[in-house]
C-alpha cells in the first residue's frame, strides 16, 4: 500500500479507508469505499430496472454489456471527487442528491468510454471485450464479414447514446431542488462539452506526429484535467453551495493534478502492464495519439530516430518489436524523464493550492493522497 502523505493517519484513499487528523477536533471522516459502494448500488439497481422495463427484448444485450462494463471495475475517480467537492463546501454525509449526481457523472463516463473505444479501435476495456467488439456477436452475418464490424460499432454508438441519456435520468432521480438543479445542470453540460470537444481536437491531431507540445497539453486540459478532476470537484461543491473561493481552490488543485494524471496515463499507455491497465500497451502507439511524451521525443530525436518514430507511430500493424524501438527512443531522448518531471511539478502545484485554503481536514488529507497516487505511479 502506498503510504499516505505526511500529517495524516495510515488510511489510504486508494483502498477506500478513512482519514483522521493526528490531533485537534475530529471532523467527519471521508469513507471513500462507502461512497463507491453506494454509487455502484445506484448504478446497478438502475440498470436492473432498465432491463426489466425494456421496450423490446432484443435490446437486452446492450444493457447487459453496460452493466458488465460498470461492474468490471474502475476507480470511480469522478464520483469520489464529486463527493469530496461536497465535503469541501462544508457539507457532511452522502444524501441522495449527491449520490445520484455522482452516479450521473459515472454513467456519462461509461458513455464516453464506449465511444472512445470505437474511435481508438480498442479491443478491450477493463479486461473485457470493448462494446463494439462484444456486440458484434449479435450480428447474424458471417464471422469474417465487414458487416459484423459495422454492426458492432453501430450498436456501440447506440449504447453510448443510451448511457448519455440515462445519465440525465440518474441526475433527476436524486430529486435536487430547483436551486441545486440550476447550479448543477449547466456545469454538468460544461463537463460533457469540454470532454467531447477535447476528443475532437485529439482526433484531428491523431496520426500526425508533431513536436508541438501545446496541442497535447490543450487536449490533456480538456479531456483529463477538467473532465477527470476539476469539474467533478466543482459539481459536488456547487451542489453543496460552495463559495467562489472553494471553487477557485478546486481549479487551482484540479488543473495541474489532472494534467499530471493524463501524463501518467500517457506513460502507462506505452510502458504499462496490460494486466494492470486493462488495455493493450500498443493501442496508443498504433493510433498515433498526440501525447506530450511523443512531442518531446520528436523534438529531441536525431534524424534517424525521427524517421523511425514517424514510420512506427501510427502504424496499425505495429508489433511488440516495433513498440520496443519506440520505447527505447522515448527513454534515450529523455522524453519519459521529462514527462516524469512534469508529473511531479503538477503534484507540487496542486499541493500548494491546498496549502492556501482552509478546507476541512479530511478533504485535505484525501486530496493530498490523490497527489501522492498520481505522482508515484499508482494512478
Name the shape in a single word: flat
Could you give the order of strands across the largest sheet? Answer: 1-2
**Structural classification:** mainly alpha
Strand content: under 5%
Query: Tell me about the biggest sheet?
Result: 2 strands, antiparallel
**Proportion of residues in helical segments:** 55-70%
Low-confidence stretches: 1-26
Succession of helices and strands: HHHHEEHHHHHHHHHHHH
Please give a handful of descriptors for the protein shown.
mainly alpha; disordered N terminus
Characterize the structure shown.
With 379 residues, the chain is mainly alpha-helical. It has helices at 32-52, 60-71, 77-88, 96-120, 131-134, 146-173, 178-205, 214-239, 244-271, 274-277, 283-287, 292-300, 303-312, 320-332, 335-355, 361-375, and strands at residues 124-125, 128-129. It has a two-stranded antiparallel sheet with strand order 1-2. A hairpin with a 2-residue loop joins strand 1 and strand 2. Helix 3 (77-88) runs antiparallel to helix 4. Residues 1-26 have low confidence and may be disordered.
Amino acid at each position: 500500500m502506498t503510504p499516505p502523505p505526511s500529517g495524516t493517519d495510515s488510511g489510504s484513499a486508494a483502498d477506500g479507508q478513512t482519514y483522521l487528523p493526528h490531533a485537534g477536533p475530529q471532523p467527519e471522516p471521508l469513507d471513500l469505499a462507502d461512497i463507491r459502494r453506494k454509487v455502484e448500488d445506484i448504478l446497478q439497481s438502475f440498470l436492473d430496472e432498465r432491463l426489466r422495463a425494456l421496450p423490446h427484448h432484443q435490446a437486452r444485450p446492450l444493457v447487459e454489456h453496460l452493466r458488465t462494463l460498470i461492474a468490471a471495475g474502475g476507480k470511480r475517480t469522478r464520483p469520489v471527487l464529486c463527493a469530496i467537492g461536497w465535503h469541501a463546501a462544508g457539507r457532511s454525509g452522502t444524501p441522495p442528491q449527491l449520490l445520484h449526481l455522482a452516479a450521473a457523472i459515472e454513467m456519462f463516463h461509461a458513455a464516453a468510454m464506449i465511444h472512445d473505444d470505437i474511435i481508438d479501435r480498442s479491443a478491450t476495456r477493463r479486461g473485457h471485450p470493448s462494446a463494439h467488439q462484444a456486440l458484434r456477436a449479435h450480428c447474424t452475418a458471417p464471422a469474417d464479414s465487414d458487416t459484423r464490424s459495422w454492426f458492432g460499432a453501430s450498436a456501440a454508438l447506440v449504447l453510448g447514446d443510451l448511457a448519455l441519456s440515462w445519465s440525465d435520468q440518474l441526475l433527476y432521480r436524486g430529486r435536487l431542488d430547483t436551486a441545486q438543479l440550476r447550479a448543477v445542470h449547466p456545469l454538468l453540460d460544461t463537463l460533457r462539452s469540454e470532454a467531447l470537444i477535447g476528443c475532437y481536437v485529439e482526433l484531428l491531431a491523431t496520426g500526425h506526429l508533431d513536436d508541438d507540445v501545446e496541442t497535447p497539453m490543450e487536449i490533456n486540459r480538456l479531456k483529463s484535467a477538467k473532465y477527470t478532476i476539476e469539474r467533478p470537484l466543482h459539481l459536488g461543491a456547487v451542489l453543496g453551495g460552495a463559495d467562489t473561493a472553494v471553487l477557485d481552490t478546486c481549479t487551482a488543485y484540479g488543473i495541474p493534478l489532472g494534467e499530471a494524471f493524463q501524463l501518467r496515463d500517457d506513460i502507462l499507455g506505452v510502458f504499462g502492464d496490460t494486466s494492470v491497465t486493462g488495455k493493450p500497451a500498443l493501442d496508443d502507439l498504433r493510433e498515433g495519439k498526440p501525447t506530450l511524451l511523443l512531442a518531446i521525443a520528436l523534438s529531441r530525436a536525431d534524424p534517424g530516430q525521427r524517421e523511425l518514430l514517424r514510420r512506427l507511430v501510427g502504424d496499425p500493424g505495429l508489433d511488440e518489436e516495433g513498440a520496443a524501438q519506440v520505447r527505447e527512443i522515448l527513454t534515450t531522448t529523455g522524453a519519459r524523464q521529462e514527462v516524469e518531471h512534469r508529473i511531479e511539478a503538477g503534484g507540487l502545484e496542486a499541493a500548494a493550492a491546498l496549502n492556501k485554503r482552509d478546507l476541512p481536514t479530511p478533504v485535505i488529507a484525501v486530496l493530498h493522497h490523490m497527489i501522492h497516487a498520481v505522482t508515484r505511479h499508482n494512478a
